[in-house]
Specification:
Length: about 325
């Protein structure tokens, strides 16, 4: 009997069939968030679960600037949308459902392998004042239908704005019926797990006390990193496939050879964007780290070593021209 193919040998294509005239702006989601950048020493990036969730999918970006508000009623006319003059109609969001819902048409049909759906919603850990993304799960292995991405207003007469290039939709594949196969139950904590938990709790308390008494000079020494490194309290690897980063492939253009991922990082000369990427990792490195350490940190955000070096070189060039980008 022939062996079953491994998951890596199966066809795991995620295809977006484009409606004629639609040129979507879709990218692998970034691990960075503005509010995380603004935390003291960017400490929010020390939370690996946040980083993984942020980058665990692809984002559809708004093709235009616009503002929108809700007058408080349930009619479609109660959502007011304003776009710059000359904006193509198919780029603008619409109000078609009423009920304080703002809608984006996704003019494409996604195809996943048999048995796989896609989860669709807003970018994780990225709130927007006055409006919230709605979530849905779509069977994309067979459906010939497109879908809409919807947001619901939370306050009447509150104007929300989206910039061109801002994420409006976040999606990732989920295996159909996987959750239904689990059998959730409660159980007493085993002795070995309890021992590790108590050791971790005591270690964390002692570490906090030591940090208060003798604050380390390097910000990177202000956290223990055990979960980040994927090791338990016995210094054993918790899982062979532990992830400290998510590296998703971008959607390849229609003329790209099948099976060859499009992994090129496009550097558009956007100093702010490049600075945000770098700040996400230099909080514990920039004062006394070297280029190789920075490369490793950028790889944790999903870049290849070549791409990381390109980012660092771009920032160095910008710094020489008088920008306020962090020095390497």
């Amino acid at each position: 009997m022939a062996e079953k193919p491994s998951p890596t040998e199966r066809n795991m294509d995620l295809i977006c069939y484009l409606h004629p005239g639609w040129a979507p702006h879709i990218r692998p989601a970034e691990a960075t968030r503005d509010w995380m950048d603004r935390t003291n020493e960017s400490f929010a990036y020390r939370c690996l679960p946040l980083n993984i969730a942020n980058a665990h999918g692809w984002e559809v970006l708004s093709p235009c600037d616009f503002t929108a508000s809700w007058r408080g009623g349930t009619d479609v006319k109660d959502v007011i949308i304003r776009v710059p003059p000359g904006t193509p109609a198919h780029d603008a969001p619409v109000s078609i459902f009423g009920q304080a819902v703002l809608t984006f048409h996704i003019y494409g049909i996604f195809r996943t392998p048999p048995g796989w759906n896609i989860w669709v919603g807003g970018s994780p850990n990225s709130a927007k004042d006055g409006i919230a993304p709605l979530s849905g799960i779509i069977e994309t292995d067979w459906s010939p239908y497109s879908f809409t991405m919807n947001w619901r207003f939370l306050r009447r007469n509150h104007v929300v704005s989206f910039k061109k290039g801002e994420p409006i939709c976040f999606f990732f594949p989920v295996q159909r019926a996987a959750a239904e196969q689990f059998r959730p139950r409660f159980a007493a904590m085993p002795k070995d797990l309890m021992a590790q938990f108590k050791a971790w709790s005591a270690s964390r308390d002692a570490f906090r006390i030591e940090m208060e008494r003798n604050p380390p000079a390097a910000p990177s020494d202000k956290w223990q990193k055990r979960y980040y490194r994927g090791i338990d309290m016995n210094d054993q690897s918790g899982a062979a496939d532990h992830r400290a980063k998510v590296r998703l492939a971008p959607f390849a253009p229609m003329d790209a050879p099948v099976g060859e991922p499009n992994t090129e990082l496009v550097l558009r000369g956007d100093a702010v964007k490049l600075s945000r990427i770098l700040r996400a990792v230099v909080h514990g490195v920039v004062e006394n780290g070297d280029v190789q350490t920075l490369v490793g940190g950028l790889q944790n955000l999903g870049l290849t070593a070549k791409e990381a070096l390109a980012v660092i070189e771009a920032l160095q060039a910008e710094d020489q021209h008088g920008t306020d980008s962090p020095k390497v």
